[in-house]
Design a protein that fits this description.
Elements: E1 4-9, H1 15-24, E2 37-39, E3 45-50, H2 55-61, E4 66-70, H3 71-77, E5 82-86, E6 92-99, E7 114-117, H4 120-129, E8 135-138, E9 154-159, H5 163-167, E10 170-179, E11 181-185, H6 191-211, E12 213-221, H7 225-230, E13 239-242, E14 248-256, H8 260-269, E15 273-279
Parallel strand pairs: 1-3, 1-4, 7-8, 7-9
Antiparallel strand pairs: 2-3, 4-11, 5-11, 6-9, 6-10, 12-14, 12-15, 13-14
The structure holds phosphoribosyl ATP and zinc ion (ZN).
């Protein structure tokens, strides 16, 4: 039978979120603990567990049809694959950081410096675009300690909270790239596999959308109903049901994360009471 083959990280920062996403898409995986390969009982999906660095090449070569990987790794490897969807997890940035004591006056200050990084291709491109000549020194891990042990003057490394840089006496001075995990695909999928990918993608989008939205229930005095409804966009329009107590209605709707608090405050101000907020598991519109 035709299956779609997906490559995900074997262990590391993207592993849990990748497996969770598949689960939320209703795809059950067997023997995840073996972490070599597995398949699903209820969706024609075969999963390969790999080092993240190898995923772009496997997908380009068609050994896997699709994959989940950080944009940082994808762009560094410079493989010819297509980004299908941004997944919203594994967010970080690739930044240049210099010792706190160093006087930094823009990228020109990097001229002639020795830069330690695991992203030589991206760093070289960044510097070249800005006409800066520096000496890139590729190392595979613990980049942040390089200046401290005299291996390099500055670093280019992934940052999320910034605490690793801080603890190593470094300050972030330039952002080369903002990154998150993405779903990628081989450029030459046949129509059967494209169809499976589209089924998977439909579910991924429903899960992503649900995460960005909340289900809201509240009680409204009938004389305030119009004002309250105008504050709730909903998917089409809010549901309004009479309460047992006369003069009151129950209003149900959906609110997106970015406008959530603002709307809740306005709803309270308009006379809404007993506001309940409930997470949404899937959202198909
Ligand atoms: O074994 P394999 O090769 O598969 O894994 P790996 O060791 O190469 O990668 P892994 O698991 O560390 O990271 C996988 C992916 O997670 C990265 O390619 C990024 O896309 C994403 N990601 C998100 C991060 C971070 N956030 C992150 N903070 N990857 C690494 N870091 C490291 C960073 O290098 C630094 O050492 O965390 C430290 C900084 O964190 P803060 O919070 O102190 O700033
Ligand atoms: Zn890696």
């Amino acid at each position: 039978m035709m299956t779609l083959r997906i490559a995900i990280q074997k262990s590391g920062r993207l592993y849990e979120d990748s497996v969770t996403l598949l689960k939320e898409c209703g795809i059950d995986l067997r023997n995840v603990k073996d972490r070599l390969r597995t398949e699903s009982d209820n969706f024609p999906l075969e999963v390969f567990f790999l080092r993240d660095d190898d995923i772009p090449q496997y997908v380009e070569d068609g050994v896997a049809d699709i994959g989940i990987v950080g944009e940082n790794v994808l762009l560094e490897k410079n493989r010819d694959v297509e980004i299908v969807e941004k997944l919203g997890f594994g967010k970080c940035r690739l930044s240049i950081a210099v010792p706190r004591s160093m006087v930094y006056e823009g990228v020109a200050s990097l001229s002639g410096k020795k830069i330690a990084t695991s992203y030589p291709y991206l760093v070289a491109g960044y510097l070249q675009e800005r006409g800066v000549k520096a000496d890139i020194h590729e190392i595979s891990g613990s980049v942040e300690i390089a200046p401290g042990i005299g291996l390099a003057d500055v670093v280019a490394d992934l940052v999320s909270s910034g605490s690793t840089l801080f603890m190593n006496g470094l300050k972030e001075v330039e952002t080369i790239l903002q990154s998150q995990s993405v779903l990628i695909r081989n450029r030459n999928l046949d129509s059967d596999r494209m169809e499976l990918l589209n089924r998977l993608l439909f579910r991924v989008k429903a899960v992503k959308k649900a995460k960005r939205n909340k289900y809201v229930l509240l009680n409204a005095p009938n004389e305030k109903l119009q004002e309250i409804i105008s504050l709730l966009p909903g998917m089409k329009s809010p549901t309004v049901l009479p309460l047992a107590e006369s003069g009151w209605s129950s209003v149900h709707s959906v609110l997106s994360e970015d406008e959530f608090w603002d709307r809740i405050e306005k709803l309270k101000g308009a006379g809404a009471q007993g506001i309940l907020v409930i997470p949404i598991e899937k959202m198909v519109i």
